[in-house]
Amino acid sequence: MVLDIMTSSRRINLTLDGRRVTVVVEESEGRMVININDEKVEVALVSKNEDEIVLKTSDGRSFSFAVERSGGDLITLWLGGIAYRAELSRPYSATRRAAVEQAQHGVITCPVPGKVIKLMVDEGSVIDAGQPLAVLESMKTEIMIGAPHKGIVKKIHIKTGQSVVKGQLLIELEPQNPNQ
Amino acid sequence: MREIRKVLIANRGEIALRIIRACRELGVKPVTVYSDVDAGSLPVRLSDSSYALGGSEPSESYLNIEKIIKIARLSGVDAVHPGYGFLSENPLFAKRCEEEGIIFIGPSSRTLELAGNKVECRRVVSSAGVPTVPGVDRPVELEEALSFADKVGYPVMLKAVYGGGGRGIRVVNNPEELRQAYSIAAAEAGTAFGRTALYVEKIIKPARHIEFQILADRSGNVVHLHERECSIQRRFQKLVEISPSPALDEELRATMGEVAVAAARAINYMNAGTIEFLLDRERRLYFIEVNARLQVEHPVTEMRTGIDIVKQQILLAGGEALPFSQDEIRPIGAAIECRINAEDPLSDFAPSTGRVIRLHIPNGPGVRVDTALYEGMELSAFYDSLIAKLVCWGVSFEEARRRCLRALNEMRIEGIATTAPLHKAVLEDRDFISGNLDTDFIERRKILEKVKKQIEEEKNSVQLYAVAAAIAYFRNNMQRPTRQEQTRERRRIVGARYYDLI
Question: With a threshold of 0.90, does the pTM exceed it?
Fold first, then answer.
């Protein structure tokens, strides 16, 4: 039996653009073979630094991904104006993610920086899933903020005319008890 | 006649940079102003001096007349160039400049007042013999709008009297829609333009949007620099502009040029401006409006004529005579402009903000890019989303078209979504190639569907390579979990009693 000590193979769990995938990676001397559900590609790593990863295929095509700095296990790669988001799935990440998710339940944050131009509900309003709650203006475009689920408006953290940044807490909702 | 030695640029972004370049070539000192978010921008870095406006909202900065006038006085400029948008067509601003003895680079405040009242301007050019889109000749209330629409037939367009630039327009298809839309349109006009007055025009469909560039000196000499066709639009906002227009032969071009000059004379136009027309299927022309300012798409004309319109603006404002006659203006070849916006064509053109993490601006023969982007720049939400203009010239339309495609494929703007895929789809469309254009082009040719399909295909084919790149990145960059996280994880696994497993 011959042991190929030059090739190492491992499984990696990733979330790619929100989808969970299991990747089988075989590496040898700077070349990688990536296998997802029997779809395979082989690449050579040409260069890698904080801002860019350049890969080359065996038929001479080059992929030069620009790296958007992200924290920890999340990376966003850009090529041709399209974003590819990959996140490592690891047990520690799962715990952290669950905690973050729980904290975010019933919370609406601002998707893009802009200005609040209209508020359609008050604290205490009963709302349906999808109901328009507020309108933002960003780059001369109007963006409608809708309710992610049925419930009651618990607290409104913004007022009309206020400038808001991405990620800013806008509105807190109390989900309606499904048993009611 | 007054020599202009120092100019204040009351604008930002790519057009501020454009004006700085014209100033430099004339030996004129450029002074810029900036809002908080523009403090690190290219125009600020490349001007002789720069003044903070304080604030980031347009109302606190680029739309604030008194702040700008104060800075103009302080910096001792001879003239102000307002660029496009912002205060460029604001008669109050032009008047304030006139009061302060500062030259406003553009038409007079009186002309701006007239050109800004879209229905009055129509009436004035119409009485000078210019054919206009069938419409009312003064602002109308709902009842008058209804009776006009009954007379000419639906669909009609409800337009804001003080609108312009494709804003404040609503299409109504029948009397019920008109009844419902009227008060909403009036309220929107009030919010956007300060006045609720509306007027009505018949809709010409199918139509081609063809405009003529005008230059006029203080002595009343007026020339046109030929046309640009801007039929490729979405929601009345131009996406791609071309010159020459495939719809015009020499005769029609000459006629339209004369009509454009007549319209400009009728309102005593001075400096640079554009007269917009619609051409219907029977090749009848109709005046729509005057754009009393330098336009976004001016490079298309510059590339064909060799005339630097912004330099001409500064010279004409200083009292120079037009240096060429109509016969001496002979455009060569063809030019196409693509307006690259920071918008995501897949999310209904939602504006994209973020950092430009990688930038490569294309170059080479016949390729011009007007932009104030730089690598590392952070895009904000305060201003409109135009971030770059790609303008390509070719000896023929086909060469210009291929050049645009070559340049778009070479260009890299990473970190934000842009409309580049949309432009590629337009440039590759067979009706675009054959010059079969009208203002319905984007919908008629299902461009957005093509873009969606193309992006999805690209995403599918690149995805595996992105995974490979991510794994290569993670390999040496994986973060070890913190001690606290390790302990918490062990506790969770083991339960109420835990053992330190080290």
Answer: no
